Amino acid sequence: MNDAVAGLLDILDLEVLEHDLFRGRSPQVGWQRVFGGQVVGQALVAATRTVRSRPVHSLHGYFLRPGDPAVPIVYQVDRIRDGGSFTTRRVVAIQHGKPIFSMAASFHEREEGALSHQIAMPAAPAPETLPGEQELKARFLAEAPENVRAYWNRERPIELRPTNFDHYVSDRSFDPHQQVWVRTTGPLPDDPAIHAAVLAYASDMTLFDTALFAHGSSVFDRTMQLASLDHAMWFHAPFRADDWLLYDQDSPFTGGARGFCRGSLWTRDGRLVVSTAQEGLMRRATVDTRGTPG
Question: 1: closest CA among 202, 198, 178, 188?
Fold first, then answer.
């Protein structure tokens, strides 16, 4: 396990303060605000630690205030329901005495259902045929903006292989659709709950960016005011976050200073394992208000 992956697992390993009360911290890497995927992942870990044996099947969260990376985040779990098949939890993340994030999560016993179907996996080039991060740096980063270079040059726990990198270094408009192969940069323990939390973290890294494609912009554009408003995930089937997953994302609508995005995560053998959705604030700004994702 490399240092970046070990660091991510450490961030997701919350401290127990009291019954149903946990504390998480943020990496001190100079971000202006806490990365949203970190809060989603930590909130999921907090909820999972109050559930016996049932895996998460869905979560729905709202970002209420920017997180402060300089201070810990306290996660308070409310045990809403423990039913015969489903368990429901509510989690509130608190900083400076105020909620910064609220999430509901549902857990379900695995069942073998007689009714089963899924849509076909979209076509995409295999990750081995795409440039790795070293090749991407050599090919694209020499002329890229400084903040783009800084993001791609530091060691990270999540490896991304976009099928198209052009929008990061261009101000042209593109179709609001992207495909990114994603996995951790090192192996993870076998615990499925860890893989769910890691993917919750990673699912926020590129999703909202898709809404900016049609407008000739990206999350690195310092003229944009961008903020995640909510985040939802549905976990359909088991997966490993340290194996390649295709993240197919699109943005069917932007308007009213908001952009809506949705995504599907597929294993290499064509299984749909996770679906995501997110809406975010997007408007022109005169100052840089965006933190850097993980």
Answer: 188
47 closest CA partner among 75, 8, 24, 83? 75
Residues that are catalytic: 204, 228, 278
pTM reported for the whole predicted model = 0.91
Q: Which of 177, 237, 258, 243 is nearest to 213 (CA)?
A: 177
Answer for the pair 23, 78: CB distance below 8 angstroms, yes or no: no
- What is the chain written as a DSSP string? --HHHHHHHHHHSPEEEETTEEEE----S--SS--HHHHHHHHHHHHHTTSSSPPEEEEEEEE-S---TTS-EEEEEEEEEE-SSEEEEEEEEEETTEEEEEEEEEEE-----S----PPPPP---GGGS--HHHHHHHHGGGS-HHHHHHHHS--SEEEEES--GGGG--S---SEEEEEEEESS---S-HHHHHHHHHHHTTTTTGGGGGGGGT--TT-TTEEEEE-EEEEEE-S---TTS-EEEEEEEEEEETTEEEEEEEEEETTS-EEEEEEEEEEEEE-SS---PPP-
CA distance 125 to 145: 27
Q: What is the predicted pLDDT for the residue at 251? A: 97
Distance CA 294, CA 288 (A): 18
Quick: pLDDT tens for 114-173. 799 999 999 999 999 998 877 777 766 666 666 666 666 677 899 999 998 777 767 788
Place of tokens 């593109």: 174
CA distance 140 to 117: 40
Q: What does the alpha-carbon distance between residue 258 and residue 281 come to, in Å, rounded to a whole number?
A: 5
In one-letter notation, the amino acid at residue 266 is W
Domain 3-109+131-284, architecture per CATH: Beta Barrel (2.40)
